[in-house]
Amino acid sequence: MQKWQLTIVVLILGAIAFGCHPSPKSENSNPSTDFKQGVRNMQLKDYNGAIANFKRFLQANPEDANSYYNLGVIHAELGNPKAAIKYFNKAIEMNPKDDEAYNSRGMAYAKLKNREREIADYDQAIKINANLVEAYNNRGIVRTQMEDSMKAIEDFNQALQIDPSFLAVYYNRGIARVNLGNNKGGIEDYNKALSYNRKNADIYQHRGIARANLGDYQGAIQDYNEALKINQTLEKNKQEIRDYRTKSAKISRDNADIYYNRGSVYTKLGEHEKAKENYTYALKNNPSLALAYYNRGLANFKLGQYYEAIEDFSPAIKINRNFTLSYYNRGLAHRRLGNFQEAISNFSKVVRINPNSADAYYNRGFAYIQLKDSERASADLQRAVELFRKQGKADEAEEALNLMEQLIDTPHSLPSP
């Protein structure tokens, strides 16, 4: 009996979350024309003009914390977190009780992936102002990213206690709940977020993942369809979108994820042609998505298109040299085609990366049988038996043992591939 292993990999989106963008500070005991114009220019996204305004104001008012804060916000918006931190430092130096400056500096540290300092700043912001909802939300996001979803949910709960209408928090808590396996709770949060904003593709996309996790595949497909529809509308109206080039890149990445996950649902439904179509669209939007190549390879395998499957597993491996499942399933495809030496080469790469892969030893042993290399076949099957038993897989161990005994008893009567 042959042992096949085809594993679908679903793309789980856990890193996408809504942060809170800092706003310019307009309060000032004696604002000059430069300060007022700087705030207006920030609101108009004329950042160069705003920088000039605040710097002129600081020449006359070198200790004005709000101007330093606003310069930090501008540099954060311009994608320069290091410069932003420099200005937030100055704002905090001038006003150590500025909760928003700590929160905003934490967000700048997030861009630099300095999570320790990021959390420390959110902690300090909350210490100064226990009702700063943005700091709870942002700390919840970083805790989710650090896979501490329980603590993240505590932060999101606190944020919602302060402001029950905060859309971002429902969405972010939904992600944390799904990460903990609470898909129903996640869907409840996504539904609440959608009640405030029905034009957000990210929410539909994540609700689709939760629905798929619960086996509601048609509901998941509906959500993925809606997410794609929203993104297509955004692309059509690109002239109306500020910073379209940056946002267009995000839309393409998001679309790749949506097509990929919709393809995974079709795979689970056994609709492999539709699955292939979706994986192909995913790759058009993100050619470096190894999982899309891999799962399209599985769809081709299921359809008996083994050459095409190999052509998909290969680029997945090129993107990720340690992608053991791609090596393994490429080995299976070669087995189906009778390319036993190629199959052995792939299974060997699997056990080199993962020496505990009992399936790879089993299938390599089977391939050695086809090449009439009884000694190596017996050694691999023996190793497969040991690993299967160690992993508590009694049926698989028995299967490998039977094949090994058959090889010993009748070495010239070989099973067909």
Structure description:
The chain has 417 residues and is mostly helical. Helix content is 73%, strand content 0%. It is built from 21 helices and no strands. The chain has helices at 33-43, 47-60, 65-77, 81-94, 99-111, 115-128, 133-145, 149-162, 167-179, 183-196, 201-213, 217-236, 244-268, 272-285, 290-302, 306-319, 324-336, 340-353, 358-370, 374-390, 394-409. Helix 1 (33-43) packs antiparallel against helix 2, helix 3 (65-77) packs antiparallel against helix 4 and helix 5 (99-111) runs parallel beside helix 7. The protein is elongated, with a radius of gyration of 28 Å. The termini are close together. Residues 7-21 have low confidence and may be disordered.
Fill in the keyword field for this structure.
single chain; 417 residues; mainly alpha; 21 helices; Ycf3; TPR_rpt; TPR repeat
SSE map:
Layout: H1 33-43, H2 47-60, H3 65-77, H4 81-94, H5 99-111, H6 115-128, H7 133-145, H8 149-162, H9 167-179, H10 183-196, H11 201-213, H12 217-236, H13 244-268, H14 272-285, H15 290-302, H16 306-319, H17 324-336, H18 340-353, H19 358-370, H20 374-390, H21 394-409
Helix pairs in contact: 1-2, 2-3, 3-4, 3-5, 4-5, 5-6, 5-7, 6-7, 7-8, 7-9, 8-9, 9-10, 10-11, 11-12, 11-13, 12-13, 13-14, 13-15, 14-15, 15-16, 15-17, 16-17, 17-18, 18-19, 19-20, 20-21
GO biological process, one term: receptor-mediated virion attachment to host cell
TPR repeats: 31-64, 65-98, 99-132, 133-166, 167-200, 201-234, 256-289, 290-323, 324-357, 358-391
Organism: Cyanomargarita calcarea GSE-NOS-MK-12-04C
